[in-house]
Amino acid sequence: MRDTDRSRRRVLAGLGLAGLAAGVGCEPREPAASREVRTWDYTADVVIAGSGAAATSAAIEARAAGAEVLVLERLPKLGGSSAMSGGVCYLGGGTPLQKALGFEDSVEAMHDFIVAAGSLHPRLDKIALYCEGSLEHFDWMVAHGVRYGTKFSVEKELPYDDASLYYSGCELAYPWRDIARPAPRGHVPAVMGHTGGRAMMEALLGAAQAAGATMMTGVSCERLVRESDGRVTGVQFTENGATRSARARRGVVLACGGFIHNRDMVRRYAPELYECSTPWANAGDLGIGIQMGMGAGAAAVRMNQGFAILPVYPPERVVKGIVVDARAQRFIAEDSYYACIGHETAFARHGRAFLVTDADCSYDPGDFRMPLLAEAASIEELEGKGGFVAGTLAHTVASYNAAARRGEDPLLQKHPKFLAPLAKAPFRLYDLDVRRAFCCSHTFGGLETTVDGEVLDAFGGVMPGLYAAGRTTAGLPTAPYIASGISVGDCTFFGRRAGRHAAGGKA
To answer: Any residues with CB less than 8 A from the CB of 502 and at least 6 apart, and which?
Structure first.
């Protein structure tokens, strides 16, 4: 067993996750036949697995459509991974907040950025619908208690103060700034200290409960229940060690997160993410919803994708350093969104990269994120201490410095704001290896769905009675992850549609 495996096991045990993950496995879960269910312990129009942003938004909309709703949450506390997040929702097209702060945006610019900056062959129907509905979705969030303040943050990182709008991704980085007109689209609840996710979920959960949704905690969904004609009509779950059955008159919505804490699933489907040091999600992200869907015949797509975040900033001054690979070559502009830096490192550089800084752009002493490998009085000495081939790092730095003095970066087009020659000793080399640096990972692969949340089978057909949303699905977020808030935006927007459609209302 490798040291990284041991350390992960210790972390999981310390967080109490090992017991939650025990026995989950990574195989699809066969549904139960309805004839096997002797008694329906609970009945509702719509049964929802999970309680994060997708599940809660589905519950709100299902109740608005007149459906009786039952929410089943594995953990003792509601909120899912969304409550752990920054609460950023990626919205644009000219939201009231954007306009109040003097920023122009358009649906077309937002659409073009998401399409161009994400992965190949994106779901254009979902992207178009999301961008076109962004203004209405902002109003919906506000109407359900999410509070935004009229304050803009100039920082690259999630605001630590109560600012509610910022550039949350790589909108200002090359080449995206030239492909689509940049605009700040990261909408954050107006709270202090990176607690926007908690504030957002408190508002949405309060709205769902006020609307009359019934919510149960400490119950673990295990299998779908299916009729002989293939229609999904319920869920089997465990409650205090006993198996219970919940009947869904109209539909079941699977919205119980991704699978980053199911290490067997991650190793099987997303090996690059498995190598990352810090699985980042709620403890219930075990892939059970995906397994339940797959066991019933659902298609699972983009299972290898997710984010691998290397938070090289803040502070912003560090962006003036350069990121290099094992050959001492720069491969990405350092002002790129840190999930893009993590993606290029994890997926294209075998997880290995380094950050080179000088005295003016180094981390503060004691910063835990990126281990300090070496410090030297010259680049040549740093090169030797770092184990690079003689002359390679010196050549890279000399070339970069010459262009930076002219205010240029012809190789990678880093923004002039972050261009400065590395000239002041001591020079430092930091380790960006995803196994040793603070590298957060989360999964994006999951069940394939229509724009209304209907789950599709392996042949592209709709599976009657089964819906899914959030990270249980392969939605808007892809690898590379281009901006904070696209996942929460996807969860809330398409969670709403799944809930309304499952209830039989118009999405």
So the answer is: 46, 58, 62, 67, 250, 251, 252, 253, 453, 467
